[in-house]
Amino acid sequence: MARNTFRIDEELDAPFQWGQLGRAVRYMGKYAKNIATVFVITVASTLLGLLVPLLTQRAIDVYIPAKDIESLLALGGVMLLIIAFCAFCARWRYRLNNRTGQGIIRDIRSDLYAHLQKLPFEYYDSRPAGKIFVRVVNYVNAVADFLSSGLVNAILELLSMVFMVFYMLYISPPLTLVILSGLPLFVAYIFITKPRQRRAFRLFNNKSSNMTAYLSENINGVRVTQSFTREEYNLGIFASLQKDTRDNYMKAVRITHSIWPVSALTSWLVVAAMYIVAAAGIRSGDGHMTVGTVIAMAGFAWRFWWPVQNLGNIYNSLITAASYLERIFQVMDEPVTVSDVPNAYELPAINGIVTFLNVDFSYEPGVPVLKNVTFEVNQGDSIALVGPTGAGKSTVINLLSRFYNKDSGGIYIDGHDINEVTLASLRRQLGVMLQDTFIFSGDIMENIRYGRLDASDEECIEAAKAVRADEFIRRLPQGYLTAVHERGDGLSAGQRQLLSFARTLLSRPRVLILDEATSSIDTQTEKLVQDGIAALMKGRTSFIVAHRLSTIRSCTRILYISDGEIAESGSHDELIAKRGLYWHLYMSQLQA
Amino acid sequence: MPEELENLKWALGWLGKKRRVMALAVLCSLSAIGLMTVGPFLFRIVIDDVLLGGQYNKLLPLLSLALASVLATQALRYTANMLCEVVSQHVVVTMRARLFERVLRQTAAFHRENTAGSLITLCTGDVEIVRHFICWVMPRSIECVAMMLTVLTLFMAVNPLYALCLFVLTPISGTLAYKLGRSIRPAHKKVRECRERLSTVVNENISGNRVIRAFAREAHEIERFERENQAFRDAQVNANRIWLRFQPYIEFMAQTLGAVNLIVGSVFVVLGRITLGQMSIFQNLAWALNDPMLSIGAIVNDAQRFAASADKLIALQYSHIAIRQPDAPHKADIAGKIELRHVTLTAGGAVLLHDINLVIEKGLTVGFMGPTGSGKSLLAGLLPRLYDPTSGQVLIDGVNVKDYDLRCLRGQIGMTMQDVFIFSDSVDSNIAYGDPEAPPENVRRAAELADAHEFVSRFPQGYNTVVGERGTGISGGQKQRLSLARAILPNPSVIILDDTTSAVDMETEKKIQDNLAGMETRATKLIIAQRVSSVKNADCIYIIDGGKVTEHGDHARLMANKGYYYDTYRLQHPGEAV
Fold first, then answer.
1. What interhelical angle do A493-506 and A457-466 show, nearest 10?
2. Band of residue A14 on the pLDDT scale cut at 50, 70, 90
3. Residue B306, in any domain of the structure
4. Whether residue B310 is found in the same domain as residue B371
5. Treating both helix axes as pointing N-terminal to C-terminal, what angle do B38-45 and B19-36 enclose, rounded to 10 degrees?
6. Shared domain check, B276 and B356
7. Which of A72, A195, B297, B505 stands 20 to 30 A from A318 (CA)?
């Protein structure tokens, strides 16, 4: 598994596809009614708005020479009415756009997040958390404006362009051609710079994602950094990541900002060309070419180029939005490798007979971690997985919980192939307690309740008592309501393990799996905890990865795993009598 | 609005040396605006003199002049835009560096109060809002004010009464803008708050993904997220709604100004107060009034959004760092004698460590045992000043740790944390974390001492293998050994091993102990453990219970004591005869 770090840009092979834009447009479907309304409102108010210059014309050409103040005031009244109507339309449009835009953002974020919940450990293990974070939070925010109004505006601008072309053609086809001749120039500029601009934005995103990854990791590892006094050095790395981000940003906006001058320049060039052609026409006595026509055409030329410039702007935001969208969709397209098979069924309440049959597994191709592992566990057995670190103990547990899919062989619980049942029904019956004791922000009670959401307070306290956590919790300032969070610094590692133990126990697992889960708990507490668990887990199967002999000895059966294979299997007494690997381990510990 | 002024002053402070560049940018954009008036004037001559007057020889010079003015205008505008980007990027980079530094230097207590998600948001999303403020809101408002003032003076010069008729409308727009600012302020605060909460949930979800999968809590997580997602959307919609409720009135006022301009102008012409030519000037300059009036809503809205972020950024920037470099830092090579005198540590009313007194001579190995949460790790954290005691003194070589140069102190204490944190980087970089320039032999030597060399060499890319964040993909025991190698690489005088071998099998632990004992430099070692085997051979073992030292002595003495240590030993050696 190639792992990404803050030093490595994330690759994205696929060139930009218009399909992605189509995908974004699909999110607009839900708001089609809103968007259509906005469209109609905008067309209406734009058309009405066109009356204003006509009225201006009338005031200057007719009423002023006639010195007709009354009509002038009446005209002013009409204009105010039109303006008021336009303002009313604008208000309506803004309200709809607001809802549409924010709704789309919420929907995209929901889908992205929901997909992330399906992705396996591998996805999270192979990249820094910060790089996932920016996609869900920052990138989605960044596409908001474009999706809420960009596309609708683009269509409107296109329409008014077409409208103007017809108008101009009606007045003077030759001059229209001159005015239109600038368009290919402008479009050509966009197409020539487009690949560079896209590349620049993509690079910028990569760099800013690297920077966020580094930021996030440094926040989580701040204590290590402080104890090694690496602050200065890390500031240096951060500075260089910031510089990369800024440099690429500047490269990208250099092109973005050039669109305006280029379109402005083109529009002036065509107007100048139009004057030259018109002057030539008038000079040669072309009857169609009058000064009035030229003045009118000049006016229309500006009105034609205005939407062109706006389109250039919208195009810029399209490029930016696309560079975020492709990253968002990249996550949504990430294959869900561990998922329910079609027709997966609910695993019925299990007794806990676990069978591994010729199971092979490797995290990375070519580096086998488990080789042809076969064993069977009876209901109510407690199994200790022992062996050197890295031999594959945790892997057995990872496969049983289906955190990863095995490469070949079969894993069965009560005869049900775990690949055939739904993940939720499988994991809900397994109480897996990982080395990773994660504490969610909230209070202690909520953290215990995470094991079973409908548990009452009494049940949560009961579970805490069983694992001997009750005592320390009551000593906390607000007892069970004490706020804790993520990087639960306020609790010791042992206390966090006890909490996560209570959480696991509360879930009433049919099979209990403990992966080095009690290593930081003192032995006397552990003894009490074990007694508590023994009562709760009577008749239930359990798997335990541990290094403390006292923990191992109390199990009914011991699997000694070495180099991805089960080297020895049997009860403590059997394995001692065998004088093999386990005996060796046991003796070395006794001597310690 | 003193609060807004404070924020503005704060933002301007960040410009630093780039203040002049910003001034230049504004100057460029104002010149561009001035030049934009030249074009229409030239085209008028084209119509009057060339097309109507037949002076065709004037056409090309006039057009060239127009082209030159357009080129100049656009060049100025482009320069102004780019300069604004340069300045705002400068602000972003320096601000983010300062915030990052603050976060890195903050104490454990601070990090307990602030979630990672909220800190990331501050350094990314909120800084981005400041960027927008510097890059757009600030220059744009200056531009708008300048445009209004210019037009005002111009109009006043031509006809004061006329000008007054137009400017009678501006207070209305001003009032609207002021009201908008007032009512939208709380809305933006709310948006920011929701954004922060959303970030916290998302960040937790990513960090806690293993636990979530293990409990099959995906549906619950989605529900939790949806609440925040919806709240954020609602807050955003609400803030926009307030802005957009005002915006049509602001637009109405701006457009009305155009209509009033036309009608008042026409009437004045009819009444003979101004000429048609003068009126056409007013008409042509109408946009210079219109444009600022139209922008005012967006400016106020964005400024208030900025204010909401600025409040939080300022709070972080000036957050108090409780543990900092002393005024006259003591620098010395540490020999390793440790002394705690009447050390008490309290937090939130709870006494975590109570009147601890102990002396550890240099070069000795000392064990710490005790029940879960009794304060062992806290005690160890006092040495490198991850915490400072509430009262009492911690001395190393007879000098209070508070008097040491922080870098000198921490650099000579090698510490492994119970909660092993591995960075998503190569094994090599992780081991050399305390000394990035360390030669590969040293890295390998440290790995060998920590018994990590063997498994590292078995990785496909050896020391160049990248391990996941928090050390995902490697086992708990491997993580612990990497963190041990990391701690001993700089050859520290004091080594603190906090539960470092709990996930390591006994044989490996024995090997590591022998390796550490055989190190050339005789460091003082503090070993915190739950396993008797980890501390059995120590020169002295302290039992910490409820924040107090309850027993101490070597193995034999504590066994004879028949206290906590004895009980633990018996539990861990079940087969052994008494």
1. 120
2. low
3. yes
4. no
5. 20
6. no
7. B297
For B429, the domain range is 338-572
CB pair distance less than 8 Å for A219 and B372: no
Interface contact flag, B216 A424, Cβ < 8 Å: yes
Least CB–CB distance from A72: residue in B119, B267, B372: B267
Lowest mean pLDDT segment, chosen from A203-207, A438-442, B298-302, B540-544: A438-442
Residues B18 and B104 both lie in one domain? yes
Q: B184 CB contacts (<8 Å, ≥6 apart)? A: B239, B242, B243, B300, B301, B304
Tokens 């002023």 label which residue? Answer: A64
**B486: chain A residues, CB-CB within 8 Å:** 228
Candidates B475, B496, B507, B533, partner chain A, best to mutate (most A CBs within 10 A) = B475
CA-based nearest residue in chain A for residue B528: A520
Span B537-570, pLDDT tens digits? 899 999 999 899 999 999 999 999 999 999 999 8
Domains of chain A by start residue, with CATH = 20-332 (1.20.1560.10), 354-591 (3.40.50.300)
Are B96 and B244 within one domain? yes
Residue B2 — pLDDT band, cuts 50, 70, 90?
Answer: low
Structure tokens at A132: 């996932």
CA atoms lying within 13 Å on the CB side of residue B411: 15
Shortest CA distance to B117 belongs to which of A200, A134, A110?
Answer: A134
What pLDDT does A488 receive?
57
Asked if B298 reaches chain A (Cβ–Cβ under 8 Å), the answer is no
Which residues from B are below 8 Å from A233, CB to CB? 436
* Chain B contact set for A90 (CB, 8 A): 247-248, 251
CATH number at residue B410: 3.40.50.300
Whether residues B299 and B373 share a domain: the answer is no
State the nearest Cα–Cα gap between A158 and chain B, in angstroms: 23
Q: What is the mean pLDDT of residues B403-428?
A: 90
User: Does the residue B133 lie in any domain?
Assistant: yes
Residue of chain B minimizing CA distance to A57: B262
Q: Does residue B283 share a domain with residue B382?
A: no
Among B222, B263, B530, select the one facing A113 at the smallest CB separation: B222
CB A134 within 8 A of CB A214: no
